[in-house]
Amino acid sequence: MNYQLGLFYGVFFLIYGLGNFYIGWRGWQAFSSIFASNRLAWCWAGGVALLALSFPLGRFVSHYAPHYLGKIIIYIGSYWMAAMYYLLLILIICDLLRLINRFTNVLPSSLRGKFPLLTLMVLALVAIILIYGTWNSRHPVVRNYEVTLPPKSSSIESMKVVVVSDVHLGWIVGIDRLQQMTEIINTLEPDLVLFPGDIVDEGVDLEAEQEMPAVLHSLHPQFGTYAVLGNHEYISDNAETTIGFLEQNGITVLRDQAVEIENCFYLVGRDDASRHRFNGSERLELPQIMNEVDASKLPVILLDHEPFNLGVSEQAGVDLQFSGHTHLGQIFPNNYITHAIYEQDWGYLRKNTLQLIVSCGYGTWGPPIRVGNRPEIVHVLVHFSPLEYSKNS
Fold first, then answer.
1. Residue range 118-161, pLDDT digits in tens
2. Predicted pLDDT of residue 26
3. Cα 114 from Cα 97, distance rounded (Å)
4. Residues 242 and 200 sit within 8 Å (Cβ to Cβ)
5. Do 312 and 348 meet the contact criterion of CB atoms below 8 Å apart?
6. Angle 15-86-69 (CA atoms, 0-180°, nearest 5)?
7. Is cis: bond before 333, omega within 30 of 0?
């Protein structure tokens, strides 16, 4: 593990530990004020400690314990991450209100000292969010776009492209979700299927999922199925295994490669920018990958997992780029963070000659919930016409 990655995990678990301590401490105070005995308060604090340990413990146990046991612990830990996140937000807001009230006395007297009611309301709100988020994460929508690319000398007038990013196939997103995904894709009858990274999550047991090959083999678009790697294929330390698995099942993985598809268009696939953190090697620069691509001859479509440095794609002559990675924050209000980080964190953007579509993804990472966005499968009708327009919905 390199220095940067070690620092990231160190900071993450420091914040994670402090957040859980704060939740346990504030809950202990609340339950102590409600009941004469501290027994329930200590139960709360102990429960928070066990739940906090379940997230990292599940990843460790999965390597040594039976498959089902590791999966149960990972599920518990993943849901606790979401519960912890919202409990932390709500508690911070409540404490800020209490601090403001200490100096301004603005809160009505009817709301002061109502610890039993407030505690129940907070726990009920978090439970409702988790239930809704779980339901929402399992009901994807088809997001339709319509774009026009310069035809150049392409031999086709239009094609249907289906793009599915961030599947995160693993402990949480299993064979049932993969089956649902392929059924939706096949009903759209695409000419081309693209996976812009994070197909596989960390911890996936590829050998145990015997049904996956049959499911993936059900995809049969005219121009084929292509994928690039995302950061999670590298985090899982399963990049090479994943590539072999995908290619055995009819999916071509492009690793800093460009291919000409039946004299219709170029498809360029970039390896993920995070690759160097895990295997020490940098990905190629886009102009190097496109060294033999004649962008004046055919339209150029690019797969790049993370939508960074869009100016590089534009200058290289890319006509249409597909990306994912952002999840649109996955759980509200994280979308404000992705808005601040990326020039375009979701949806359609036209940047001079470059057109970009960023998907918020199909699966989930960490908490198996989505709040504030819907999981999606992107369906794009691509026209090859000299008309300068694009539509999306």
1. 778 888 999 999 999 999 999 999 999 999 998 788 889 999 99
2. 87
3. 14
4. yes
5. no
6. 75
7. yes
